[in-house]
Design a protein that fits this description.
This protein is mainly alpha-helical. About 55% of the residues lie in helices and about 5% in strands.
């Protein structure tokens, strides 16, 4: 079902918050998301492949946010996963301006690439927090945070 996505809240913040949680759980005190990912990898808290997935996820979220802002002419956060359709409104229907304030993503494969990483990451974060609370330290991800099924 196609619905508008708030790119800032629903996409951009997800990896940032998850990486901040990982940083807190692993006692990493760095301000940069990229620095945190590098430190998680350097200290073997995440493997090489999961570090790449975190980097890709963060990059996609930033790109989508910037593309949405550019297309919408500022900080308007609506992104549509649906293809753009040129439509001529009738007199009593929504104005053309309403439809123009939504960024229609030209290639929905990027959303697929995002969600293949974001959904497994969200599932893993809960387990990481539980493990840390129980005093189990080590690798924060025991599974790969990528699922294309």
């Amino acid at each position: 079902c196609g619905h508008l996505i708030n790119v800032k809240n629903d996409i951009y913040r997800v990896p940032g918050v998850a990486i901040e949680v990982l940083a807190l759980c692993c006692e990493i005190m760095l301000a940069s998301t990229w620095g945190i990912i590098d430190e998680l990898k350097r200290t073997h808290r995440v493997g090489d492949e999961n570090a790449i997935h975190l980097t890709v996820l963060t990059s996609i979220s930033a790109e989508l946010r910037l593309r949405t802002y550019m297309a919408n002419g500022g900080q308007r956060d609506n992104l549509s996963p649906l293809a753009k359709i040129d439509y001529q409104a009738k007199a009593n229907e929504a104005s053309d301006a309403t439809f123009k304030s939504v960024f229609h993503i030209p290639d929905t494969k990027v959303l697929f690439r995002y969600y293949c990483r974001a959904i497994p990451l969200n599932r893993c974060i809960v387990d990481v927090v539980k493990d840390i609370q129980q005093g189990q330290f080590g690798r924060v991800f025991t599974t790969n945070i990528f699922d294309n099924s």
